[in-house]
Specification:
With 207 residues, this protein is of the alpha+beta class. The chain has one domain. It has helices at residues 2-23, 116-131, 175-189; strands spanning 30-35, 44-53, 74-84, 96-106, 135-147, 159-170.
């Protein structure tokens, strides 16, 4: 009986968080949708996939709940996975764990910038701080991949892709602030212009 009650309570807690996550609306250039979540990492989980389409303009009309039209050129993408285990696994240091990645193509001249990794990680830390997202046990990597063309592709410009993989443990159930922060990181990485002052991107949440 006690086990069933604990399971019901944990499901209720997770469902409440999930409802708030579904209320988050990204800026129009970003399309956000739920995708199948990993089933074996935690008793409860949800995964959100994002695509960034720079052709979408603030305030413009677009397809889908997340904003961007399928026909636009993709300039960035990522995934946000939330895990919940009320048993508080020791490596997590809490009941919640966010596992995420974000990637985008950069200007080729940035491939040799030795500070690029640190800058990418600071984007995540700053976004979490600005969003008021409390967390512990952050870990991750920042990777750059340089693609050079040879043979029949010689002459085409080289490309540089940057990827930020990160995980951290929210210290409360205000997980929507963590999703908002991650969306800001994805927008920055994808080279989107800052949102003009006074332009509202996220709708007011219901009390």
């Amino acid at each position: 009986m006690a086990d069933r009650r604990l399971l019901a309570e944990s499901a209720t807690t997770f469902d409440a968080v999930l409802a708030r996550l579904r209320e988050v609306r990204p800026r129009p250039e970003i399309r956000l949708e739920e995708v199948p979540a990993p089933a074996r990492l935690a008793p409860h989980s949800v995964a959100l996939a994002a695509e960034v389409h720079a052709d979408r303009q603030l305030g413009g009309s677009g397809g889908g709940a997340g904003g961007a039209d399928d026909g636009d050129d993709e300039v960035g993408a990522g995934r946000f996975v939330l895990l919940y285990d009320p048993a508080c696994p020791e490596p997590w240091g809490g009941a919640w764990r966010v596992v995420s990645f974000a990637r985008a193509q950069l200007e080729p001249e940035l491939s040799t910038d030795p500070a690029l990794g640190g800058v990418g990680w600071s984007w995540l830390q700053d976004a979490l701080d600005v969003a008021g997202a409390d967390y512990v046990a952050a870990a991750g990597t920042v990777t750059r991949v340089v693609s050079e063309r040879f043979g029949g592709l010689r002459g085409e410009p080289d490309t540089v892709e940057m990827e930020i993989r990160a995980s951290w443990t929210p210290t409360n159930d205000a997980i929507e602030t963590h999703l908002e922060a991650w969306l800001e990181v994805l927008a920055t990485l994808s080279g989107l212009s800052p949102v003009p002052e006074g332009v509202a991107i996220l709708p007011k949440r219901r009390a």
